[in-house]
């Protein structure tokens, strides 16, 4: 009986190793990214109890811009659970250069961006990655929303990237994100999060018109309405924030307050 028990345990362990290796090799992620993805998936599902409604319906190798409302510094964690692919997020350059945190962001292949001015290099990098089949993550509000309003005025960065890269936009709505007033506090806060994934939004009829301010503002309003509709707020009237020289076309970096 003891030999049988040990044999069954060995078979089970081998099966688990096989499944783990298969999943690591079946994704476009590097091994280090796969490990972090699974850690994030486990924490998001267990600690923050993420429930996903909908799916990322994209052809293989198709790029896209993923957008969502922004209530917490850990919102990217919930988006990442949708698909085992790299999502390139805009992150303030000082975090990327941090000795304590930079290694993690480099593995995640984030896009470093400057806070103090219009970072055209970061925007061009986002366009290039999306056009090449990558996923770009942008919060169009530009900063964490700590107000009672459903959404802050939208910024045109996601529209600019999608139009120039000629890729669709995937609107999402995140409900229940924990926020304790700082960038790090949500890590220690349990939650019950709901992630609603919308249908891909095809902008092909507007390709080549990213320099048209009126088109950018109209599409930005429609983008914010699509996010609001995922929250069942179909009558929400979104505002559009003007791009300033201090923030750049994509607003502030992820996690900025």
Give a verbal description of the structure.
The protein has 257 residues and is an alpha/beta fold. A 7-stranded mixed beta sheet has the order 1-7-6-2-5-3-4. The protein contains 8 helices and 7 strands; from the N terminus they run H-H-E-E-H-E-H-H-E-H-E-H-E-E-H. The longest helix has 24 residues. 37% of the residues are buried.
* Low-pLDDT regions: 6-11, 13-22, 244-257
Mean pLDDT: 84
What is the first-to-last residue Cα distance? Answer: 61 Å
* String of helices and strands: HHEEHEHHEHEHEEH
Assign the structural class, choosing from mainly alpha, mainly beta, alpha/beta, alpha+beta, or little secondary structure: alpha/beta
The main pleated sheet reads as: 7 strands, mixed
Q: How would you describe the oligomerization state of the chains in this entry?
A: single chain
Quickly count the helices.
Answer: 8
**Helix share bin:** 25-40%
Walk me through the topology.
Layout: H1 2-25, H2 31-46, E1 51-53, E2 64-68, H3 75-80, E3 87-92, H4 93-96, H5 102-107, E4 111-113, H6 120-131, E5 135-138, H7 157-165, E6 169-175, E7 194-197, H8 213-230
Parallel strand pairs: 1-7, 2-5, 2-6, 3-4, 3-5
Antiparallel strand pairs: 6-7
